[in-house]
Design brief:
- The protein has an eight-stranded antiparallel β-sheet with strand order 1-2-12-11-8-7-6-5. A two-stranded antiparallel sheet has the order 3-4. Strands 9-10 form a two-stranded antiparallel ribbon.
- It is built from four helices and twelve strands; from the N terminus they run αββαβββαβββββββα.
- Strand 11 and strand 12 form a beta hairpin.
- The chain has 254 residues and is an alpha+beta fold.
- The radius of gyration is 17 Å and the shape is globular.
């Protein structure tokens, strides 16, 4: 337990100090293996983290897509993990929306592990509430807009998200998502549509190693954002893609 706490404290210092050698996140917009900020962690190590407040992402490289806008909080995670999945296999994991139900993250407010999504499933379209099977690899890689409904344990009701994935070259998958509907607690709007945006750039480096660079950003909200909360939510999905239960390792931002 002492070692676990020490690791958690070290990870927390990484986020809390937020020592920025770069003024902006540097994503791998070019070939895989390009220099990024933060730098990729070692395979199977905790992802490297950087965080920013009041950052204008509109001047960042075009591969960040819809995140290129002024943001109240932005975090970047860069890691590598071992997985035998092919590009199609990773796309199927991205499309497995129902498997994100019950995903856990470290809650800074609760100072403990908490369920992130109590309900999550794919739906048939932008206006549909009809549940459907998880998205196929072909759908995720198609560049088409796909829609999900998610029940976050911090908000009221089901929230609609749009997911757009695409294949770039032989070994890269890019996935963007954003909330389509406002997120509310009771009758209070916490986040406007498209206030929560995420992009994942996944590169298959070899037959058993993947690299993932994630930028997760909050454009604005009713409540002041704690970057640690954004880090921990992003980490939950990072670990999901890596096939590692998030609550079995120390939190990135205790």
């Amino acid at each position: 337990m002492g070692a676990r706490r020490a690791l958690a404290a070290a990870a927390g210092m990484l986020v809390a100090l937020a020592v920025q050698a770069q003024a902006l996140p540097v994503p791998p917009c070019g070939a895989s293996g390009a220099q990024v900020h933060p730098s990729y962690s070692a395979p199977d190590g905790a992802p490297a983290v950087a965080s920013w407040r009041n950052l204008d992402l509109s001047v960042t490289p075009a591969c960040l897509g819809e995140l290129r806008a002024p943001m109240e909080v932005a975090v970047a995670l860069a890691g590598r993990f071992r997985s035998p999945l092919s590009v199609e296999g990773m796309a199927r994991r991205v499309g497995a929306i129902s498997q994100t139900e019950g995903l856990r993250y470290w809650s800074v407010t609760d100072e403990g592990w908490r369920t992130l999504l109590s309900e999550a499933y794919a739906v048939r379209g932008a206006e549909s509430n009809a549940r459907r099977e998880d998205f196929s690899a072909a759908e995720v890689l198609s560049g088409a807009a796909l829609y999900t409904l998610q029940r976050d344990t911090r908000t009221t009701g089901l929230n609609r998200y749009r997911l757009i994935g695409r294949r770039v070259g032989a070994n890269r998958v890019i996935v963007e998502s954003a909330n389509v509907t406002p997120l509310r607690f009771l009758f209070v709007e916490l986040y406007a549509p498209r206030a929560l945006r995420v992009i994942h750039i996944l590169d298959r480096l070899s037959s058993d190693v993947w690299a993932i660079y994630t930028v997760s950003a909050v454009q604005s909200g009713t409540l002041e954002q704690d970057p640690r909360a954004v880090v921990n939510r992003a980490a939950a999905y990072h670990h999901f893609l890596a096939g590692v239960p998030a609550d079995r390792i120390p939190p990135l931002a205790p």
